[in-house]
Amino acid sequence: MKNFKKQFPLLEQYTYLNAAASGLLSEALLDFRQEHDLDFLIGGSLFREQRNEVFLLARKAVGGLFGCAPNLVALTPNFSLCFNLLMAGIDPSKKVLLLKNDYPAVNWTVTSRGFDVCYAEINEDLEKNIAEAVAKERPDIFAFSLVQYIDGIKMDQEFLKQLKSQYPALLLFADGTQYCGTESFDFSTSALDVLGASAYKWLNAGYGNGFFLFKDHMQELFTSENLEVKELQSRNKPYHGSFIGKFEPGHLDTLNFGSLKVAVDLIKQVGMEEIETRIKDLSKLAKQKLSEKGMLENSVVNRKQHSSIFNIKGDEKLFQKFSGSRIICSQRGDGIRVSFNYFNTEADLDQLLKQIN
């Protein structure tokens, strides 16, 4: 499958460098949604009786892509909702390490609940800063984004494994919203205890769906007494009374989680290895070209590895110049954020660079 513009029609009209803000609607996803709503139209509650199969298939698809048993995959409308439920079930006396200026949905969820909080700086020495903070503060939990949403600084997975080896009792809770779908990842062999993500960005699954992956030992932290939503579980849900059921209060949406399954299937069809190769090659080239033009901060330039998200130096005038040239990107922090997904090409990068000259 090489003709990505055919699967994502918007690419025929725009240079789309905004996956970090929102993924695209694919032809495959549109076909599924139209068929889904037609089936609902003519089936009503008869159609809804098949919903548990939809959710099971979504769990299997997500678990298969990221290396997690389906019974430890929770389906959630977004990262923020499930992370709030997760932290609501954690003993508030625990000490939590955060990254300064990390994504608000991560940090606010922790700080608003009164946990004892400590911080590490986000810069070119990110991993060193974390190691020093853990050694000094001895937190019980480290909650963080795998890729930073403003400038794309990416956590070193090998460092996390070393950290976990040195501090096996330290729980690692990660937000993968800006990461999942960009490279191959096996949750089962990772250092993470929990990984959550909204799927509307790099997975191109549309809005209203996401997932959380849990290591098996996390079940021991959640008793029926310390997660208040337990009574909201519908008695006829297959996960009623289970660990995963605690994170799925109320009804789930067949349209959105069916969309998640279709999006994962499309990724498998393209091939995760090809996606990873395309993104890494384009990211490496973009970093080189943007660095040569002096458009990147040293905290990014000096990193050995980086994501495909870049915050380039630019003001409102440059942003409007991009917009006038049909380049879609976002203003974030003090600059302009551009991001490259597997459907982007060197021609897209060239178009961006042409406007910077």
Structural overview:
Residues 76-321 form the Aminotransferase class V domain. One of its GO terms (molecular function) is transaminase activity. It comes from Salinimicrobium oceani. This is Aminotransferase class V-fold PLP-dependent enzyme. This protein is an alpha/beta fold and 357 residues long. The protein folds into two domains: 4-25 and 271-356, Aspartate Aminotransferase, domain 1; 42-268, 3-Layer(aba) Sandwich (Aspartate Aminotransferase, domain 2), CATH 3.40.640. The chain has helices at 4-7, 27-43, 45-48, 51-66, 79-88, 104-111, 126-137, 157-166, 254-270, 272-292, 298-301, 316-324, 346-356, and strands spanning 15-16, 73-76, 95-99, 116-120, 141-145, 171-175, 194-198, 210-214, 309-312, 327-328, 330-332, 335-339. Helix 2 runs antiparallel to helix 9. The longest helix is centred in the C-terminal third of the chain and has 21 residues, at 272-292. The radius of gyration is 21 Å and the shape is globular.
Low-confidence stretches: 228-236
| CATH fold-level topology of the largest domain | Aspartate Aminotransferase, domain 2
Q: Based on the coordinates given, report the CATH architecture of the largest domain.
A: 3-Layer(aba) Sandwich
Let me know the CATH homologous superfamily of the largest domain.
Answer: Type I PLP-dependent aspartate aminotransferase-like (Major domain)
Oligomeric nature of the chains: single chain
